[in-house]
Amino acid sequence: MGAVMPSGRVLARTMAQYVDTNSESPVVELGPGTGAITNALIEHGVDQKRLVLVEYNPGFCALLRDRYPHAKVVQGDAYKLRDSLWDVLNVPASAVVSGLPLVTKPMLTRLKLIRDAFLALAPGAPFVLRVGPAGSGRVSGAKVTSGSNVEWGAGGGVCFASWRAQVQSMMAAMASAPM
Asked: Is pLDDT of 42 > 80?
């Protein structure tokens, strides 16, 4: 299932700002669709060669390959991220960016995606994702609060979060947990 509300330019540009343009490590985008966030990442200064675009829809994959010939387009399921990336990433990603509508998926599926995204990231790298309508203050029944490892913002009518992968022991524990 694609985005309930595709990412607009304001949201895409705001999300792209969290990606380090000086790194040479890959940037993984989950569910790029037609490329709104992909365009913003390139406009922000991310080299196309660093992009790993994980898209489920074969038609969108063909479109992405035409639009971004230097990016690595992976036809795969972001909700099975480890399977989709197992032979693609040789080094940890400098960012994972997602415009996927997580709130439409069951909680266990969301947690698995978040776990797998963190496992793909270098220490301190951001996981930037869309979480729901701006101003709602709630995401799937959970109160949205900010913390030292989470930055919340809004752009284009959608709330987003940027988590930085800093708690390695937690991620190691989650990696071994069955899901």
From this structure: yes
**What radius of gyration do the chain's Cα atoms show?**
15
Q: What are phi and psi of 152, to 5 degrees?
A: -105, 145
Instruction: Please give the domain boundaries of the chain with CATH numbers for all domains.
Output: 9-176 (3.40.50.150)
Dig out the tokens for 143 from the structure. 């109160």
Please give the model's pTM, rounded to 2 decimal places.
Answer: 0.78
Helices 107-120 and 168-176: crossing angle, nearest 10°?
120
Cα–Cα distance for residue pair 14/46, rounded to 1 Å: 14
What is the C-alpha separation between 101 and 127, in angstroms, rounded?
15
Residue-wise pLDDT for 44-61, tens only, equals 999 999 999 999 999 999
